[in-house]
Amino acid sequence: MIEYETVAEAEASLGRALTWAETKWFEYSAAMPDYWLYCHTTTIIVFVVYTLAPLPLLLLETFTPAFVLPYKLQPKVLLPPTVSLRCFAEAAFFFIFAVPLQIIFHPSVAKVYQMMGTRMGLPLPSVNEWGYEKIHRVHHEFTAPTGFAMSYSHWAENLALSVPALVGPSIVPCHITTHWLWFTFRLIEGINIHSGYHFPIGPGKLIPFYGGAEYHDYHHFVGGSSQSNFAPLFTYCDYLYKTDKGYRFHKARQAKMAKLARNMEKGD
């Protein structure tokens, strides 16, 4: 809730006139409880972005115009609209489930950790395949992902991935609009790496070490046996831990086959 009761009081405190956007924000949020503003991130921003951002990809997948086929990473796999609708229905259920959690955990990280029972001592968690078989396998149903598959995951995985996304805005003071922009960016980034298309231009090209859709698509393409490409954004982590060897071998083989095909065409 804004600490000023009137626009005049706000302008007097700031020592200047409010901008148009500031005035509109005052009108919208002056008497609104903090809980309600905070929950916009799930109830409005997250749901709207997740619903609208993948729609262009759905249209591409449905109508498959010829000019985009050269950019599709797995051109032989065309998913029907019902698949995206199934992903959306599963994710929508999680969004509804997350609303009360947003309210309960508002917004102290320390309290979130305490309420979730997060521990820091021993014993360490055992290393086995239980997590993949029981949880992450749901997300890997799609060996050729599409935009709506971004949040098509086991509810526990969606919940676990939501916690680190909330940590930054919870421990760093910021305006609620910055909070919304952060979640918008995270959603669009996740949708992009699951899009199934690798276009020659895009905002991701401006981000250092960004692997994008092509990089993460290989992680899905390999499926359950994947030990590669875990970090589509910070790809240097895969390089440091040598978990991109399979992908680099795959790319080298593709380049070799493309070169062989060009040589054969020249021979003809």
Automatic annotation (TrEMBL):
Q: What's the EC number here? A: 4.1.99.5
Q: Where does the record place it? A: Endoplasmic reticulum membrane
Q: Which domain of life is it from?
A: Eukaryota
What is one GO cellular-component annotation here?
endoplasmic reticulum membrane
Gene Ontology terms: biological process: lipid biosynthetic process
Does Transmembrane appear among the keywords? yes
Record membrane topology:
Multi-pass membrane protein
Primary localization class, coarse: endoplasmic reticulum
Signal peptide (from-to): none
Q: Which UniProt keywords apply?
A: Endoplasmic reticulum, Lyase, Membrane, NADP, Transmembrane, Transmembrane helix
Positions of transmembrane segments: 83-105
Give the family from UniProt: Belongs to the sterol desaturase family.
Q: Tell me what this protein is called.
A: aldehyde oxygenase (deformylating)
Query: Which species?
Result: Eleusine coracana subsp. coracana
